[in-house]
Design a protein that fits this description.
Layout (H helix, E strand, L loop, with lengths): L1 H8 L14 E7 L6 H9 L7 E7 L6 H10 L5 E5 L7 H11 L4 E4 L4 E3 L3 H7 L7 E3 L2 E3 L5 H22 L11 E4 H7 L11 H12 L4 E3 L7 E3 L5 H13 L1 H4 L3 H27 L2 H25 L12 H21 L2 E3 L2 E3 L1
Parallel strand pairs: 1-2, 1-4, 2-3, 6-9, 7-10
Antiparallel strand pairs: 4-8, 5-10, 6-8, 11-12
Helix pairs in contact: 1-6, 1-12, 2-3, 9-13, 11-12, 11-13, 12-13
């Protein structure tokens, strides 16, 4: 955690290459986003990017009114857009993004999700960080703020994952990435064919990150700019939250490509398992000595996590959330243990589909 905190602090603020005129396509995979897709289109309509850009929306067999809403919303804008629909034998986000890339005609691709919004400088900020050596960019993502401790907990959880992703890109051992805000050269995507490596339904963002890193290890940037932040709608129920986290956890084993990466994940899991079991065993034993050891284990973990939170959370404008972080970290212990196992052995519901 100390190393990741150092790495986050040493990520350079993006340099704007104003003379670079990159054409870009924004690709979004959509399935059952009625009531949300219009907000994304409105955000895209306000973009101030001065160069050529295009929007490709790929419908993944939506069963609600998403397609009609998207068509109507786009008709009220000046966005150059194409709406595509996956064929019957294709389904899932990876297939949708792959289909979108195949149909794009620009040098660069940016991806975002259908339930996201961003400020008017998003494309400019992301693309402004690109130079001749850059092959991929990863951007910050946060949840929209909502009241209640549960929402603060999941906000901190997402922020920590984005922070770890950014820090590990900085250290040259990238672990995490989020397709709600990433970009890459179209030619490189077609060259490495990143989604052919796994049959998992989830993982489009991390499979691409890992595949590209193997080919171009020094060509990935994290765009550490508040103007590049993409905001997503948080899970609206415990059930939706559970399935979202199982979906995220399900791709972990498939994306570990080195002993170093596996070691980090195993270390994180064992640390949380010990932090969960130590207090339980101490209470069962009734030993004062055991209680002191368990307390020290918890305190050490909370302090390490708090250090990382203290450098990452303020960037997202959530400094007030830091007072909730110690309690969130305690609850995060059984959360990691549960979802770590569920991601390996469990199935989940996502957009009216049962997946693994």
């Amino acid at each position: 955690m100390i190393r990741w905190s150092w790495a986050w602090n040493h990520i350079s603020m993006p340099v704007r290459y104003e003379d670079e005129k990159h054409s870009v396509t924004v690709i979004t995979a959509m399935r059952n986003e009625s009531g949300r897709i219009a907000s994304l289109i409105s955000s895209l309509a306000d973009q101030d990017y001065p160069f050529q850009w295009h929007f490709i929306l790929v419908d993944d067999h939506s069963t609600d009114d998403s397609l009609n809403e998207a068509t109507s919303a786009l008709a009220d804008t000046a966005i150059k857009a194409t709406i595509l629909t996956l064929q019957e034998n294709q389904l899932g986000k990876k297939a949708a993004i792959n289909f979108g890339v195949q149909n794009a005609r620009t040098e660069w691709v940016l991806t975002t999700d259908a339930d996201c919004i961003m400020n008017e400088s998003w494309i400019s900020e992301m693309m402004g960080s690109v130079d001749d050596q850059t092959q991929m960019i990863s951007g910050p993502v946060q949840f929209l703020q909502r009241p209640g401790f549960f929402n603060k907990f999941i906000e901190l959880d997402l922020i920590s994952m984005i922070g770890i992703g950014a820090a590990t890109i900085r250290t040259g051992t990238p672990l995490l990435n989020n397709a709600a805000n990433m970009g890459f050269r179209r030619s490189v995507f077609l060259e490495i064919d990143p989604f052919s490596e796994s049959k998992k339904a989830s993982g489009d963002d991390i499979f691409l990150l890992k595949s590209l890193h193997r080919k171009y290890p020094d060509a990935i940037k994290f765009v550490k700019s508040r103007s590049a932040i993409v905001s997503s709608i948080p899970p609206e129920s415990l059930t939706e939250f559970f399935h979202q986290r199982v979906r995220w956890a399900s791709k972990t084993s498939s994306t570990l490509t080195t002993i170093h990466e596996a070691g980090i994940v195993v270390l994180i899991y064992i640390t949380n398992l010990i932090s969960l079991l130590a207090p339980v065993l101490a209470i069962l034993s009734g030993s004062r000595h055991s209680m002191i050891i368990a307390s020290c284990i918890l305190a050490l973990k909370i302090l390490a996590d708090q250090l990382f939170f203290s450098v990452v959370v303020p960037f997202f404008g959530r400094r007030k959330h830091l007072k909730y972080a110690p309690l969130a970290q305690i609850l995060h212990i059984p959360y990691v243990v549960l979802f770590g196992l569920s991601g390996i052995y469990g199935s989940y519901q996502w957009k009216s589909r049962k997946l693994q």
